Amino acid sequence: MVYSPIELYDIVIFGAKGDLVRRKLIPALYNLESKQHIHENTRIIAVGRAKWSSREYCDMILKNLITFLSKKIDYSIFNKFKSRFVFCNLDVSDHAKFFYLKDIIKKKNSRCIYYLAMPHYTFSNVCLGLKKFNLNDCNSRVVVEKPIGISLETSKLINNVLGTYFRENQIFRIDHYLGKETVLNLLSFRFANLFIYNNWNKSAIDSVQVTLSEEIGLEGRVDFFNSTGQTRDMVQSHLLQLLTLITMSKPYAVNADIIRDEKVKILKSLKPITKNNVKDNIVLGQYHSGFINKKPVKSYLNDLGNDNIVSDTETFIAIKVEVDNEQWNGVPFYIRTGKRLLKKCSEIIVNFKNDSNNIFNKILSSRSSNQLIITLQPNEGLKINIFNRKPGVYDSNNLVTNSLNFSYKKSNETFLNDYERLFLEVIRGNQSLFVRRDEVELAWNWIDSMMYAWKDVNMKPILYQSGTWGPDNSDLLLNKDGRYWYNN
Ligand SMILES: NC(=O)c1ccc[n+]([C@@H]2O[C@H](COP(=O)([O-])OP(=O)(O)OC[C@H]3O[C@@H](n4cnc5c(N)ncnc54)[C@H](OP(=O)(O)O)[C@@H]3O)[C@@H](O)[C@H]2O)c1
């Protein structure tokens, strides 16, 4: 399906030589080209410090597409794609040089999407440069990546900079999880199916688990990660965003601000983790050496440089979160994320309660309850485990668990990956898949107070062997409530 009409914007990418652009943005734009989702006349203006011509930049693009595209390049598409590119040599700290960018933009007098694929400390320079040449007019849009800061205070500084030069409805803060098909489907699944909608509350749901696990370690991001940690990198953004989508109330309309208003209510309802309850509600870990896919891997400290370095940075965190509102109070949400875990996966598990009055009580009480398993990656899809009578000549009470399965791969629908989807929504001006300023700041507020609490009580990460599901204490977090992690 081609969206119609496709709006005409020029896409200006700052940080054109960077990792994000090469690995994610260029392949996503190429895929959108191949699916005819980019306006015929859209130009892609790549801004960087390298002294490249547009042609040299296109050579670089081709090399990166060969490396990062998961399919063969179609050269008839690539030729159209590369004809869109203009390279603009610019160091953003030199505001006068934005004249060159203005010159390119004004040639076609186009509306612009500015994608800031740059470190946050460069944002004020970009904004000042754009302002100097009136390039931040109300028709323009600006896209920034998570993480927005590393604390409430730093996120406010970044948001203040952006807010000085752009209105909130021009700012698109990316959390790429919000572009994943299964995440998009969360609201449809919850609110379009009455049998789910009616049971999506504390009366029917026992507990929820969310796991975002990685096999990788630092992958060269040594300084960034050691000063950030897994909590700031993954929980503040992806995990809390998922939690809001799982728990938010039905918005009265499918509209960006109305949806985000509901998410904000959840962020305000998160029970604070304080120094009085932090030890009961979180487990921190740091990976030790071990094996991933049978290959030996080093410890975190070794990945940092050597084993004599001291670092309390957590590479794993499990948290028991409670949403303190009428719909959810008393339901635990167990969330965990870590590096060098047994396998890479992103999953939401919803455990339903057993009906204590059901006529199969003896049999059911010895079995697990109904489960909904939503897989965000790999193999996007969802599965519901239900009980059925075992066919044949057995006792009529003999039950088996079967699964109702839906897999996106098998559905044959046009499938956009997260960055393709998000680009498309920026072009369409749909902000519902982007994070509003108040969401970012409320999430940081909750994270900051949890981190202060664990520092206050001097909690340190526990070592866990690489290639496992994290420290044993993570299991205890659930076991003490009579529950277990779902480790597929
Ligand atoms: N990489 C990812 O997968 C990923 C994922 C999520 C979020 N992010 C976020 O996305 C942003 C970019 O990340 P990245 O990994 O792509 O970083 P990166 O590889 O370090 O690239 C940053 C780019 O910014 C350019 N740059 C820096 N200062 C500049 C200046 N004064 N003028 C012009 N260009 C300048 C650099 O140019 P030079 O090449 O000339 O140095 C480089 O090309 C960051 O905010 C990051 O947190 C990245």
From TrEMBL:
Coiled-coil boundaries: none
Keyword hit for NADP: yes
Binding site for NADP(+): 49, 91-92, 146
Active site (UniProt): 238
GO MF term (any one): NADP binding
Known pathway: Carbohydrate degradation; pentose phosphate pathway; D-ribulose 5-phosphate from D-glucose 6-phosphate (oxidative stage): step 1/3
Domain Glucose-6-phosphate dehydrogenase NAD-binding: from-to ranges: 12-185
GO BP: glucose metabolic process; pentose-phosphate shunt, oxidative branch
Entry EC no(s): 1.1.1.49
InterPro entries: G6P_DH, G6P_DH_AS, G6P_DH_C, G6P_DH_NAD-bd, NAD(P)-bd_dom_sf
Binding site for substrate: 176, 180, 214, 233, 339, 344
Pfam families from the UniProt entry: G6PD_C, G6PD_N
Catalytic activity: D-glucose 6-phosphate + NADP(+) = 6-phospho-D-glucono-1,5-lactone + NADPH + H(+)
Record-linked PROSITE patterns: G6P_DEHYDROGENASE
Annotated function: Catalyzes the oxidation of glucose 6-phosphate to 6-phosphogluconolactone.
The family this protein is said to belong to: Belongs to the glucose-6-phosphate dehydrogenase family.
HAMAP family: G6PD (MF_00966)
The protein, known as: Glucose-6-phosphate 1-dehydrogenase
